[in-house]
Structure formats: C-alpha cells, structure tokens
Design brief:
It contains five helices and no strands. It is an all-alpha fold. Helix 3 packs antiparallel against helix 4 and helix 4 crosses helix 5.
C-alpha cells in the first residue's frame, strides 16, 4: 500500500514537471507582439492555452472553431502537441 502511494506521488510529480516544461516551451516560442495585437477575446483564449495547455477550453474562450484557433496558435508560433 505504501509503495502504491509512493508510485502515485511520483507519477503526479512527473506529470507536473512535464506540464511546466510544456508551458515553458509555449511561452518561450510565442510571438508576443502578434498575440498582443489580437482581439481581446481571442488573445484571452491564446493566453489560456499558453498557460494551461487546454486546447478545447482556449478555443471556447476565443469563440473560434478548433481549426481557426489552431491557425491562430500557429501564426502566434505557439507550440501545439
């Protein structure tokens, strides 16, 4: 039982580290000048995606369909898995 708890704790820590690394990659590579020029609602969706990595929620916040949102992310040079 104790080793199961240890494995879960280790796995959660590994996921958190991976999330942070992906967040760092999205932030570092983003074209912030382009992002700042976006309409407010779309910018909020892009910023949400950069921070959380949740493509569907970012798309909903932006008020775009998924294809349009992905295109905006590509233009903003935001890394998409």
């Amino acid at each position: 039982m104790c080793s199961e708890k240890f494995r879960r704790t280790r796995l959660i820590k590994m996921w958190e580290e991976e999330d942070e690394e992906l967040r760092r990659l999205r932030r570092e590579n983003a074209d912030w000048e382009y992002i700042e020029k976006l309409p407010e609602r779309i910018k909020k969706g892009v910023l949400f995606f950069i921070d959380r990595g949740d493509l569907r929620m970012g798309q909903k916040i932006a008020g775009l369909n998924i294809e349009e949102f992905i295109e905006i992310l590509r233009r903003a040079n935001v890394w998409i898995p």
